[in-house]
């Protein structure tokens, strides 16, 4: 159970749902057939046909890859006047994630208190970076938010604009590679009171650019700290529930467990091990619960197999 400092005023953020598409009947495209306009080529990502068709992501490139952490703690006077207060405890989240990502071999960049324009500039540069010799890419966003929004220190930024930067057609050297986003922020103002359960004890060749294509939306994993419409809880001393659970699982099983199984266990920890403790100062927010929301467009199993030489941290 969390300490009394639990703060639900991380004004959430959320993903944007795209409508289902209705159109012509689909057809199966086999590797080696030159089919145009079906998505992003993986040719520039440095994969062979065998690797592209494998059931496990290739994780033996020379580098693990770039990881970006944006940690927004202190907001402008105008934002504070609207209720977006200092996010106490977020530095603990940022430091723990930096340590865990370094442990996994990532080259970590830490950015603090960024405006919307600065956030986009950082992420545009990351998308334009040459990731040819890297396994994957990770982005950690720690801020206030609302549905479909992550906040810079000066205002709102649509999350879909961030994702668009890394889609296959826009970031060719990450096409076919995992792109992981971990987002700690609220996605609304609803509170989850939880529900009681009835429980009983029981006794080799390089591909041409147009040779094999994948959808531009593929190979993303987006892990939100909470479901749409709800608060995301953060302890002012220990950090947010979601990041506490995530960093624990990355430390314990980060190099051996498949990512979706790992994220399921992260969610289990958030659901079972945490409960708000705001009594008596905020009795209406006392004993609230939370569940993370994991959205996967991954097409293969992902395991961060150990690298021989871990990457350094950029500060």
Automatic annotation (TrEMBL):
Residue ranges constituting the Caspase family p20 domain according to the UniProt record: 63-190
Region named Disordered: 1-39
Keywords attached to this entry: Apoptosis, Hydrolase, Protease, Thiol protease, Zymogen
Domain Caspase family p10 intervals: 210-306
SUPFAM superfamilies in alphabetical order: Caspase-like
GO biological process, one term: apoptotic process
Pfam families in the record: Peptidase_C14 (PF00656)
Any one GO molecular function term: cysteine-type endopeptidase activity
PANTHER family: CASPASE, CASPASE-7-LIKE ISOFORM X1
Protein family: Belongs to the peptidase C14A family.
Protein name: Caspase-3
